[in-house]
């Protein structure tokens, strides 16, 4: 056996130690995301001060995230966030509340509920679907319905998807997991069939309970159609929440990523503006939100559609006519 001098052994140990330490330092300095799944290459491109693209999973250690979230939220989460009907650990500890603002679109509901239930089951995403049905006589208020849905879902779910009923995901690689790093916009502008401007955050947006409460939900001043998502973007930006999206390198299906069921001839949207509604709709609302939404649950129904369970919430929203006189159409 050849004799290796002691100095050579010490030199080799020094070299290996230096190489390992250097590798760790470079990883921390240039990757910068200690909890990312570094087994995958990723790209983060600055879209604006708070928008990022990415093509890596939002969360690596789901269990540790869930424990931290429960600690941050105090007693707002119950044991029902873990659905015992899915004992497989691959389902993860989180439960998604799919919140759908809704009015008089029964045919779309019949398609949406089983489609989403099967889609999320295939991805092993624990979920509950909440259809928030506005049954009062006021104009449609999507933002307030999302606030109501959040309040009804948060005791059973630790994050929500604000989800349009006419937007059905077709690409199996879309992310519906827990948005650990920040709100996750599933229907990015390069994927949504209709809206393509850079700061668009509508269609499908994932937010944790803590993130939604941090921005006080959505404004309650948007009666009629449009602009509530743009005001939500301002809230998230002001709260310094980074908004994440898929990278165009990962999701390559473009405008074929979703099925968009909206028929403008059958479902005419209410774009009318009354009083000073147009002016107010372009302003940041710091007065109303999830903490101030007023409503009554007229009826709560557990429904199964083609084997897919959901909760139907018949909601009557309250309108302060001094604050938002445009909640009713003066011409009707």
TrEMBL record:
Primary location group: membrane
Nucleotide-binding found in the keyword field: no
Localization per record: Membrane
Topology relative to the membrane: Single-pass type II membrane protein
Keywords per UniProt: Glycoprotein, Glycosyltransferase, Membrane, Signal-anchor, Transferase, Transmembrane, Transmembrane helix
Domain Galactosyltransferase N-terminal: residue ranges: 82-176
Pfam families reported in the protein's UniProt record: Glyco_transf_7C, Glyco_transf_7N
Annotated spans, Disordered: 52-89
Domain Galactosyltransferase C-terminal positions: 183-260
Segments passing through the bilayer: 7-28
Enzyme class: transferase
Keyword Transferase: yes
Superkingdom to which the source organism belongs: Eukaryota
Biased segments, Polar residues type: 75-84
EC number(s) stated in the UniProt entry for this protein: 2.4.1.-
Pathway of action: Protein modification; protein glycosylation
Similarity comment: family membership: Belongs to the glycosyltransferase 7 family.
Function recorded in the entry: Catalyses the transfer of galactose onto proteins or lipids.
Protein name: Beta-1,4-galactosyltransferase
Classification of source organism: Eukaryota, Metazoa, Cnidaria, Anthozoa, Hexacorallia
């Amino acid at each position: 056996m050849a004799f290796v001098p002691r100095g050579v052994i010490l030199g080799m140990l020094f070299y290996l130690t230096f190489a390992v330490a250097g590798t760790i330092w470079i990883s921390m300095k240039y990757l910068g995301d200690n909890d990312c799944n570094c087994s995958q290459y990723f790209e983060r491109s600055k879209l604006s001060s708070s928008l990022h693209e990415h093509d890596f999973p939002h969360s690596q250690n789901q269990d540790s995230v869930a424990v931290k979230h429960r600690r941050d939220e105090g007693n707002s989460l119950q044991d029902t966030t873990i659905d015992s009907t899915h004992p497989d650990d691959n389902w993860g500890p989180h439960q998604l509340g799919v919140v759908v603002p809704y009015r008089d679109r029964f045919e779309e509901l019949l398609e949406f509920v089983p489609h989403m239930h099967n889609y999320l089951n295939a991805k092993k995403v624990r979920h509950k679907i909440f259809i928030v049905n506005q049954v009062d006589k006021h104009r449609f208020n999507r933002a307030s319905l999302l606030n109501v849905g959040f309040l009804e879902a948060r005791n059973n779910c630790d994050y929500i998807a604000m989800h349009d009923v006419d937007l059905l995901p077709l690409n199996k690689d879309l992310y519906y997991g827990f948005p650990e790093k920040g709100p996750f916009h599933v229907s990015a502008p390069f994927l949504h069939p209709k809206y393509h401007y850079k700061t668009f955050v509508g269609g499908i947006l994932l937010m944790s309970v803590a993130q939604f409460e941090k921005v006080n939900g959505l404004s309650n001043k948007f009666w009629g159609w449009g602009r509530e998502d743009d005001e939500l973007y301002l809230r998230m930006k002001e709260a310094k929440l980074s908004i994440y999206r898929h990278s165009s390198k990962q999701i390559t299906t473009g405008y074929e990523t979703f099925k968009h069921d909206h028929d403008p001839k059958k479902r005419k949207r209410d774009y009318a503006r009354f009083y000073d509604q147009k002016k107010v709709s372009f302003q940041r609302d710091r007065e109303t939100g999830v903490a101030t939404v007023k409503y009554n649950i007229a009826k709560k129904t557990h429904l199964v559609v083609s084997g897919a369970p959901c909760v139907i919430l018949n909601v009557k929203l309250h309108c302060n006519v001094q604050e938002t006189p445009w909640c009713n159409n003066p011409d009707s």
